[in-house]
Amino acid sequence: MIGKIEHLGIAVKDIEASNALFTKLLGRPPYKEEAVESENVITSFFQSGTNKIELLQATHPDSAIAKFIEKKGEGIHHIAFDVDDIEAEITRLKAEGFQMIHEVPKDGADNKRIAFLHPKGTNGVLIELCQEK
Ligand code: ZN
Prior knowledge:
3 helices
């Protein structure tokens, strides 16, 4: 089942500068910074109430984040939903006609297994499914 919005992902050019900005904005520093080498990104996570914000900076020009910023500039990159059974959700969504970027879950940041849906099928919004490991 799809649950709450787990986090919002924001693409940034300079994660150190953005960490300082969001620390000022939210009144607390990130609780975690983590590189995801398979995605060529570094991430940081902020808690705000029960919600989380993920900042993502590309570490390589081939990274999806670098391409996103090139096309659209910095800003909201994806919405991540909490799921209790990621394989079951991928199967369900494919049966509903959604196109998956990842048909097999992969390891993401923040101790999650993740899979993205293709934004072409979701009104241009990149959607991430994530399940706590
Ligand atoms: Zn995310």
